[in-house]
Every structure is written in C-alpha cells, then in structure tokens.
C-alpha cells in the first residue's frame, strides 16, 4: 500500500521516532510504501528551529532522526504529479 507523507506526518516522525507515526515509518518494511515530494525537504528545513525546540534533541540527534525518517520515504519530483492532482492537494 502506498501512503503519501505530508509535512505534518514527517514532522511528527522526526520529533519522535518512537511515536506511533515514527514507528510506522521506520518499521513498516514491505507493508507500506511511503512517498512524498521533494518540497517536504524545504518545509522541514524551514521549520528546523521549531523541530529542535519541540523535540529538545541536539542538532546531531535531530539530524539522525531526520535521516532515519527520510531513508524510509521515496521522494518524487513535483513535476511527476499531474497538475490537476496538485491543484486538488
């Protein structure tokens, strides 16, 4: 099953990889296929300070959490998404 990951879901998983959302993304090998677009990277970067504040993780630990979450998401170029679908989203 393909699951689309938006910024809020990625944010939650990065803040706490042991949460239900984090556990699903990190430990659902061969059950779910997580996808998002490259814009997610920009959104997370834009909210990096908020992530640090909420998570109370060091920059090193937060980067590791981000790496683990991103490793389990397939990123696609926004150009691959039909314009009609992007307008709905």
Structure overview:
The model has no long low-confidence stretch (mean pLDDT 91). The protein has helices at residues 7-15, 20-27, 39-46, 48-55, 59-71, 83-88, and strands at residues 2-4, 33-37, 73-76. Strands 1-2-3 form a 3-stranded parallel sheet. With 89 residues, the protein is an alpha/beta fold. The chain is globular, with a radius of gyration of 13 Å. α1 (7-15) packs across α2 and α1 (7-15) packs across α5. Helices cover 58% and strands 13% of the residues. The chain has one domain. It contains 6 helices and 3 strands. The longest helix is centred in the C-terminal third of the chain and has 13 residues, at 59-71.
The largest sheet is: 3 strands, parallel
The counted number of beta strands is 3
Outline the low-pLDDT stretches: none
The gyration radius over C-alpha positions equals 13 Å
- Helical content band: 55-70%
Summarize the structure.
This protein is of the alpha/beta class. Helices cover 58% and strands 13% of the residues.
Quick tags:
about 90 residues; alpha/beta; 3-stranded parallel β-sheet; 3 strands
What layout of secondary structure does this protein have?
Elements: E1 2-4, H1 7-15, H2 20-27, E2 33-37, H3 39-46, H4 48-55, H5 59-71, E3 73-76, H6 83-88
Parallel strand pairs: 1-2, 2-3
């Amino acid at each position: 099953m393909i699951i689309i990951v938006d910024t809020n879901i990625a944010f939650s998983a990065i803040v706490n990889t042991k949460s239900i959302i984090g556990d699903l993304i990190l430990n659902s090998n061969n059950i779910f296929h997580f996808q998002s677009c490259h814009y997610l990277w920009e959104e997370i970067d834009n909210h990096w300070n908020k992530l640090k504040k909420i998570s109370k993780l060091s920059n090193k630990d937060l980067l590791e959490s981000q790496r683990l979450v991103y490793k389990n998401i397939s990123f696609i170029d926004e150009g691959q998404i039909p314009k009609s679908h992007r307008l709905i989203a």
